Amino acid sequence: MEHGPPGSASERRERILEATERLLRRYGPAKTTVADIAREAEIAVGAVYLEFASKDAIVEELSQGQHRAVMAAMRAAAAEDLPFCDRLRAVFDARARAFLELAGSGAHACDLVHCQSRAVKAAHARFLDEERALLRDLIERGARAGELDAADPELAARALLTAYASFSPPWLFQSSREEVEAALSAVHRIVLYGLAGRDPARKPAR
Question: Alpha-carbon distance 32 to 193, whole Å?
Answer without folding.
Answer: 45
